[in-house]
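tool_call: predict_structure(chain=1)
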Amino acid sequence: MNLSRSRHKNREENLYAFTQPKSPVAESFRALRTNITFAALERPCRTLLVASVGPGDGKSTVTANLGVVTAQAGSRVLIIDCDLRKPVLHRYFEVDNHHGLTNLLAQDLELPDVVCSTGVENLWVLTSGPVPPNPSELLGSQKMKSLLGEIAGQYDRVLIEAPPVVAVTDAAVLAPVVDGVVLVVKSGSTRIDMARDAKAQLEKASARIIGVILNEVKMNGEDSRYYYYYEGKDRSSKEVIL
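tool_result:
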């Protein structure tokens, strides 16, 4: 598969780090990659959950582009689409979604049977697979926990996309079994009380929240798309504005 010749709308408009590697947007994702590394120096995040407060906040775009720039830096990266309700990551990389995570959890399959190459060196994706009737139960199963442990031993970084926190319990179910969580919120759309509620739900589930990504911010009259905020143990912050 040659992504450079593809004209898929999701890829062209949202996979900036691959289609526009020299753009300010791509550079912003590289800065995000660096900030995540420094935000977790004491305990590196091999498995990182990307969650959003509500639908449409941009978690899929963040997950896909962060995966690309991390792979471009030489790390072996696996993206897992754990949004088993409305999966979209397979569209970003134009891979088949007939078989994926749900098949792996419900059937006698091995990881190599369902992991897809993306056309980006060092980057693979495990799509959601068919939408199941019991997403939370599958994600909270012992088999899922064991799978994440197995995967973490095979890749340098595992990025896991989860459904919106305030809508369903899936992100809270996954939070305790990953190394860290980043929360995506959308400027001008996400209500502050909902963001606080999402943070509280994750913390109640013993999540290690390492940062917040504020999406679609307009700064100084310019059409800015992403604003990243990371807060470390010393309460200092690092910001990257596009």
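agent: Confidence is low (pLDDT under 50) at residues 1-9, 230-242. Proceeding to next step.
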